[in-house]
Specification:
- The chain is globular.
- Helix content is 36%, strand content 18%.
- It has helices at 38-44, 46-53, 67-79, 90-99, 103-117, 125-142, 146-157, 162-169, 178-188, 193-206, 214-222, 225-231, 233-249, 253-263, 429-433; strands at 24-27, 33-36, 59-61, 307-309, 314-315, 324-329, 337-346, 349-359, 367-371, 383-384, 392-399, 403-408, 411-417, 437-444, 450-452.
- Strand 1 (24-27) and strand 2 form a beta hairpin.
- With 453 residues, it is α+β, with helices and mostly antiparallel strands.
- Strands 4-15-6-11-12-13 form a six-stranded antiparallel β-sheet, with no helix packed on it. Strands 5-14-7-8-9-10 form a six-stranded antiparallel β-sheet, with no helix packed on it.
Length: 453
């Protein structure tokens, strides 16, 4: 077992390939080799420590990686720095850091991705595609979901059109891999209009053969039908009608089941005239897979562990892109929810302002809101008109340097752009809300409110 020495540390780059201490041989492609010291490598990697100390291995096969990437990996282990890391070898280095469990190097790779890979010079499609594929493979192959989150956030921050990007990314829909399908959903959102229109076009094209290919089936299984139905009812009916036609003559039980589940989400519309019992419209909602493991499922039950009853005037977390998550119940419908934010000082001036939401009187789905310094203060002037009517509402609130976004039961009910959506006479809002938040306080006047701790 390697001694307890704090890493990363600088052991000296000059000792790489040393004939004296090079007791661990890395075998590369085309017969090339790099001699390393097993102790230095083990100090950085618990995996290499086990391979050398317990299994007594003196060689490691590294043929899956390019020589430039392995050179960078070894140099990082010896120096504690990532000076030779480049975009072209980034994925190999990140994969090695993951495989050999070099935690500090994994963190540096993620930092490099945000600072260099996502730093588009021209916002060109090829730059965005390069970063997209890296994020997609990191998530799909290495289970590193933070790359996808950073990529999507970067698109929003740079005001790059997700619709235009996905239009090109998904051009050859039938040839997309499962990984690319999942990435498309992550970029657009599972219930997005963009995904649905591409899906509608593709289903129309395959209608002639009366079957759905694997990509259409996969996307339909993952699609957030409830959200799309609520926001785009006309297009929902178009897709549902096509699926009904396809499934009638299909001999595939999978096609019939996928179509049935999609069509059943027509719970807010009139029952279908179809006599096909398997596709009979029922007034129930399909269960959906949670985006995050710690988010409560939307039911009429009390929230489970992780959720606690909120305390008014207590600190809440809406800092550095964190999500503020709340649950409200209809039996506590009356009363406001307000968040007071203290922003980082600009030129020595600290700013304090707030935003709030509250149900409009005698309604289930209409809520009113205000954003301090951006809209007029007070209620019943600005409305969130697409709030789901579910008895239990799960709210996710996020703030970036450009937007305040509120999602309720997976439906985006507000995506407020500080640069374009402020009232004309509210000139200070953009400058204040674009700053980082130092501190937040939650205020509410309700019988019951839950917060995710």
């Amino acid at each position: 077992m390697a001694p307890n020495i704090r890493i990363p540390a600088n052991f000296g780059k000059k000792h790489i390939n040393s004939p004296v201490h090079g007791n661990l041989l890395l075998k590369l492609r085309h017969g090339e080799e790099i001699r390393t010291n097993s102790m230095i490598m083990s100090l950085n990697s618990p995996v290499i420590d086990r391979l050398t100390s317990e299994l007594h291995q003196s060689t490691l096969e590294m043929e899956d990686f390019t020589k430039l990437a392995v050179d960078c990996f070894v140099e990082s282990m010896y120096t504690g720095e990532v000076e030779s890391l480049q975009k072209q070898i980034f994925e190999d280095v990140n994969k090695m850091a993951h495989v050999f469990e070099v935690s500090w190097l994994s963190k540096r790779c993620f930092k490099f991705y945000k600072s260099d890979v996502l730093n588009f010079e021209n916002n060109s499609y090829h730059e965005v595609l390069f970063a997209c594929e890296i994020a997609s493979r990191a998530h799909y192959n290495l289970k590193q979901s933070r790359y996808v989150s950073s990529f999507v956030k970067n698109l929003v921050t740079r005001e790059i059109s997700q619709t235009i990007f996905l239009g090109r990314y998904m051009t050859n829909f039938a040839d997309l891999s499962q990984r690319q399908l999942e990435m498309s959903l992550a970029v657009a959102g599972k219930g997005s209009y963009e995904i649905a229109m591409i899906l509608l076009s593709h289903i129309t094209a395959v209608l002639k053969s009366e079957k759905l290919d694997k990509n259409a089936l996969s996307l339909l299984k993952s699609f957030d039908v409830s959200s799309f139905r609520q926001n785009h009812p006309v297009h929902f009916k178009d897709i549902a009608s096509l699926l009904l036609d396809i499934s009638k003559d299909s001999k595939s039980s999978e096609v019939k089941e996928v179509a049935r589940k999609f069509i059943q989400d027509k719970s807010c519309s009139k029952a279908s005239n179809s006599t096909d019992d398997a596709l009979q419209v029922v007034d129930t909602a399909e269960e959906y897979e949670e985006d995050f493991p710690d988010i409560a499922t939307q039911t009429d039950e009390e929230p489970e562990r992780g959720w606690t009853e909120a305390v008014s005037q207590s600190k809440c977390d809406l800092i550095s892109g964190n999500m503020l998550q709340l649950i409200t119940k209809d039996d506590a419908q009356e009363g406001y929810i307000r968040v007071e934010c203290t922003f980082e000082s600009a030129g020595g001036n600290t700013a304090v302002t707030d935003f709030g939401i509250m149900p409009a009187p005698k309604t289930e789905s209409q809520w009113t809101y205000f954003i301090g310094k951006c809209t007029k203060r007070g209620w019943n002037a600005y409305y969130l008109t697409t709030v789901p009517s579910d008895k239990v509402k799960h709210w996710i609130i996020t703030k970036t340097s450009t937007h305040l976004k509120i999602v309720c039961n997976k439906v985006t009910v507000l995506n407020f752009n500080f640069a374009t959506d402020c009232d004309p006479d509210m000139r200070t809002g953009k400058d204040i809300w674009s700053r980082e938040i130092d501190y937040c306080k939650l205020y509410y006047d309700r019988k019951l409110l839950f917060i995710l701790q």
